[in-house]
Write a structure and sequence with these properties.
The structure holds 2 protein chains of 2 kinds. By secondary structure, chain A is of the alpha+beta class. Chain A is built from 9 helices and 12 strands. Chain A is elongated and about 85 Å long. The chains are: A alpha+beta, B mainly alpha.
């Protein structure tokens, strides 16, 4: 009889415990969600750019769409041609592999691509209405990269000095979490290869090691793609976006500091289209080392706008490291579970 | 009857026996063979030869269904161990072995599916090597947790194996330390099932605000528990019908009460989350709102069915409700991993290819075939006593 009583009260206790903890969990969840972003205890601080981080400044108003950068990128990085279905018809029948490189998007074969925006009659360069504009796509080398944060095997790494985001295929397991997580849609995998690799721009680190320019910045005839320290490029971007239409100004080529790849002459030009004040990559998701300026709004150029100023890893790593800080919470839970399991299995003689 | 665990001593388990090569088993085996042929293409020609995976949708149904949903199917062992050994509810004891077995296959095959999906599968062991470890990666935590948990499930299921082959000495030794594995068997799913939700936090704006939330780990844990309960009920009713065993309705009706609590908590938190994030308007005609409505309709109809207490004792109502809640959990997870996802720089399209679907079907067919084989050959099911019938 007394045993029965104990059992009832224990059941009651358990029931209340379950109800109580469910209510507590619900309250805690609500608090977490309700907290404003700046006061959100789950968010870890954003990562700053390394002081000597390098990158590219792309100026859409200077780009003439010659795609010399696309070709140079392929040569310097030994990448194969990427032939779209529409380009295959006229020469694919000859038995030889088609050789006309015509990428329309970043892929496992194309680390750098020039894309075009067009509207209406497409008559005016750098006009959103009845105009056209170019945009260069390649890895932006984030200050706080999602691809590095998600990689389970350290195949994606960020160089502590240059800030270049590198990929090591020998470590990679091919999970494609980097492809999924990149907010700019950059890393790509080769689905047509039984031993496919993740591919992305690594800012021609092999060229930089030889004090040579990244392929794209090296061949750009107008200085639309300019190499340099990100801080210098940021200052140059601010200078350009402050220019007025009709102003006469100087545009450098190659390396903005004139060191990597040797000094080169710039050129003088009138500003023909009004720059947007928005410098793409200055603030997006914690900032990126590669920046872009344009006369056409960046959402028209198919770049993600309206994104937070902190990288997404600030939240996902924050959640994870709060729950698993020092493994204290899992260890405590394990101790509790082990105690209960030990006590309760004593009663279960058969297993 | 008291619910004290010690009064349920001496539960015997029995192998169900019977023919192995039944029609369902052969159909499953044929489906596995079809998947095998497709996988040959996948491994010799690349992922595109067998799937519609692309750089906009690098994760398709092999991740969303085989791993994310498949592992939730595998949560039966988790919830039953939690009830039986941690909350000391001995009345759930007959459900332990079938649940652990279902979990073992759910997780084991989720692991197998990962090897199908990994683009550089020959490097998969890098996940286990500390010098490759990247502690910020939610996937590393999930991967290690799932791998460890699969081993824990093997140990948890080992008594059935040892019993079958009469290795009593080892079985007695194992029983003395089983509590360690039971504790791990509850801790690890709590960790990785919630982390499966955290994994999608980093995709940020690419996941519709109907699903993107820092509450994702909470919702994934809740759906894991809910789907664990639902699969136990579902499996129990199916086993009773197909193997002509008496219904385990009294135990199942208690589980139904728990399902009701978890499903209600999920629905309430889901709406609180949407309101607090200021995204509640999205449910009225925002993009993908139809999928949200479908998910909620399944969840709410499943739980409403359980509100009348009488229904919790009706095996048909139980089965229908468990099916609805299971479908709701499946759809929630599919929404988060696939349907609510829009690639960063588009346009991209994804719908699984026939071959891709057949691989997923093959994985689940293998699970069913192995389950049928095991319950017939090993003492998994609770022995039926006259007083139960």
């Amino acid at each position: 009889m007394s045993k029965n009583k104990t059992s009832v009260s224990r059941r009651g206790f358990l029931r209340n415990a379950v109800k109580g903890s469910a209510a507590a969990a619900a309250a805690a969840c609500t608090t977490v969600v309700a907290a404003p972003p700046e006061a959100n205890a789950l968010v870890r601080p954003p990562k700053p750019l390394p002081p000597d981080a390098v990158g590219l400044l792309y100026d859409s108003t200077l780009c003439i769409g010659c795609k010399a950068c696309v070709t140079a990128c392929k040569e310097v990085n030994h990448m194969p041609p990427d032939v779209g279905p529409a380009q295959q018809g006229w020469n694919a029948g000859g038995g030889d592999k088609p050789i006309y490189d015509s990428p329309v998007e970043l892929s496992a074969k194309t680390l750098n691509v020039i894309k075009a925006y067009s509207h209406g009659t497409g008559a005016t360069k750098d006009a959103a209405e009845n105009g056209f504009a170019f945009i260069k796509r390649q890895c932006l080398h984030c200050a706080d990269p999602s691809c590095v944060s998600v990689c389970p095997v350290s195949a994606m790494t960020k160089d502590a000095k240059t800030g270049i985001v590198n990929h090591d295929p020998s470590a990679c397991i091919g999970c494609r979490y980097c492809v999924l997580s990149c907010p700019f849609g950059v890393p790509k995998y080769d689905y047509n290869d039984a031993f496919g690799e993740i591919k992305k721009c690594q800012l021609c680190k092999q060229q930089l090691a030889k004090n040579e320019l990244p392929g794209c910045a090296d061949v750009c005839p107008t200085g639309a793609t300019l190499f340099g320290r990100t801080e210098d490029l940021k200052a140059e971007a601010r200078r350009r976006t402050a220019l007025k239409v009709g102003e006469h100004t100087h545009y450098p080529r190659g390396d903005i500091a004139g060191k990597v790849g040797g000094p080169r002459s710039g050129h003088e030009k009138l500003v023909e289209a009004a720059y947007q004040t928005h410098i793409y990559g200055e603030k997006e998701l914690g900032g990126t080392q590669c920046l872009a300026v344009s006369a056409v709004p960046f959402d028209k150029l198919n770049l993600p706008t309206n994104v937070p100023e902190n990288g997404y890893p600030t939240l996902s790593e924050g959640i994870q490291h709060t729950l698993y800080a020092g493994m204290i919470a899992p260890a405590t839970v394990f101790a509790g579970l082990a105690y209960l399991a030990h006590r309760n299995t004593k009663n279960h003689t058969d297993e | 009857m008291s619910s004290q665990a010690h009064e349920h001593h001496g539960h015997e388990h029995q192998a169900l026996g019977g023919r192995v090569l039944t029609l369902p088993f052969l159909i499953c085996a044929a489906l596995v063979a079809v998947a095998g042929v497709i996988l040959f293409q996948r491994y010799t020609q690349g992922l595109a030869a067998a799937s519609n995976l692309n750089d906009g949708y690098p994760w398709g149904i092999w991740v969303a269904i085989d791993v994310v949903i498949g592992s939730a199917f595998g949560c039966a062992g988790y919830v039953i161990a939690l009830l039986c050994y941690i909350l000391n509810r001995g009345e759930y004891h007959p459900l332990v072995r079938p649940a652990v077995l279902a979990s073992l296959f759910g997780y084991g095959l989720a692991g197998l599916a990962v090897l199908v999906d990994l683009g550089r599968y020959w490097n998969f062991y890098h996940m286990m090597l500390p010098w490759y470890a990247q502690p910020n990666s939610v996937m590393l935590e999930v991967g290690l947790c799932v791998a460890t948990y699969t081993l824990v499930l093997v140990v948890e299921f080992a008594p059935a194996f040892l019993e079958r082959f009469g290795i009593e000495g080892l079985r007695a030794k194992l029983n003395r330390v089983l509590w360690v594995f039971i504790a791990l068997g509850v801790l690890l799913p709590t960790m990785h099932q919630s982390s499966l939700g955290t994994m999608m936090v980093i995709v940020g704006h690419k996941l519709s605000p109907l699903w993107q939330s820092q509450m994702l780990p909470v919702f994934f844990l809740l759906t894991a528990i809910l789907m664990g309960f639902a699969i136990v009920v579902w499996e129990s009713v199916m086993a009773s019908l197909n193997f002509r065993r008496p219904m385990e309705t009294p135990v199942l009706s208690k589980l139904a009460g728990l399902m009701l609590v978890v499903a209600s908590l999920f629905v309430v938190l889901r709406f609180v989350d949407l309101i607090v994030r200021g995204q509640i308007g999205q449910i009225f005609g925002g993009p993908q709102s139809g999928w949200f409505v479908a998910e909620m309709a399944l969840m709410i109809s499943g739980l409403v069915l359980l509100i009348p207490k009488a229904n919790r004792n009706r095996s048909r109502a139980l089965f229908l409700s468990a099916s609805l809640l299971l479908a709701a959990g499946i759809l929630y997870r599919l929404n988060v991993y696939l349907i609510g996802f829009t690639p960063a720089v588009g346009p991209w399209h994804y719908f699984p290819s026939v071959k891709e679907i057949m691989v997923t079907v093959g994985v689940f067919a293998l699970e069913i075939a192995l389950y049928l084989l095991f319950v017939k050959k090993l003492p998994v099911m609770h022995a039926v006593h006259p007083e139960h019938g």
